[in-house]
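re: the backbone from monday

yeah here it is again, tokenized this time
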């Protein structure tokens, strides 16, 4: 990983998700009415979250899960309902506060540990499962793979990640970046072909014990994202 490009992009993302787009993001991830385009994004994201959850065990009693780039915490809540002990971390302290406020009253508040900071912080400890839903799509593919290798060092069973699939020339248009008015657009999304990502994961010495497994693409209106499961061989 190039530390410089990773840190530069991380800084842009922190500014974007903690300031520029924080209200729009909190609204998108709530039940509040949204326009037609954002509604397709919301539906696509619901489908993606359900896909990732379907790749996790139904009962997660005692398992530790890292929600890496948790945003407003929807996936953390579902994992906690299955009995997981969740660490929910995000660069944006504001989104983490929103996530904390949205914790349903019927869930024991100790089941999710909310933190703001970098998902790669070694102090977070070790996990059975790591999920990074749409939180690595803005990093260059080589940085994304290096992030996966760092997460793999601390993960026992599976890493679930989404990427922005590079398909046709349209790919770059159909991204969450289109959600917000031009001036508010997110840092660029870095589309990557599924084959390229699999090849990089397969050839990275730091991921030698790991293999890319099933995948599922979600394409709903303005939301296109693809889930990939990475597990020990
Ligand atoms: C598109 S949002 C998705 C949030 C959440 N996973 C979801 O699907 O609702 C991406 C999030 O990843 C976070 N993020 C990006 N890079 C991160 C990093 N290195 N460490 C922690 N969070 C990160 C951003 O702050 C942002 O809130």
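seq for it, each position gets an aa:
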């Amino acid at each position: 990983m190039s530390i410089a490009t990773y840190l530069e992009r991380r800084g842009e993302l922190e500014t974007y998700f903690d300031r520029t787009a924080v209200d729009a993001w909190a609204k998108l991830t709530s039940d509040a009415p949204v326009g037609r385009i954002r509604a397709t994004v919301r539906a696509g994201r619901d489908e993606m979250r359900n896909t990732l959850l379907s790749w996790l065990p139904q009962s997660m009693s005692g398992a530790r899960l890292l929600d890496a780039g948790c945003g407003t915490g929807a996936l953390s809540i579902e994992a906690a309902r299955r009995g997981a002990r969740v660490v929910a971390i995000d660069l944006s302290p504001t989104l983490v506060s929103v996530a904390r406020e949205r914790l349903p009253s019927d869930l024991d508040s100790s089941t999710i540990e909310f933190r703001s900071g970098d998902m790669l912080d070694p102090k977070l400890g070790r996990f059975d499962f790591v999920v990074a839903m749409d939180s690595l799509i803005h990093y260059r593919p080589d940085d994304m793979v290096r992030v996966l290798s760092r997460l793999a060092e601390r993960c026992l069973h599976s890493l679930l990640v989404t990427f922005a699939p590079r398909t046709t020339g349209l790919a770059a248009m159909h991204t969450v970046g289109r959600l917000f008015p031009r001036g508010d657009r997110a840092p660029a999304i870095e589309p990557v072909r599924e084959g390229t990502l699999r090849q990089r994961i397969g050839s990275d010495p730091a991921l030698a014990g790991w293999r890319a497994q099933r995948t599922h693409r979600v394409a709903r209106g303005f939301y296109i994202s693809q889930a990939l499961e990475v597990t020990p061989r």
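Residues 36-54 form the longest helix (19 residues). The mean pLDDT is 92.
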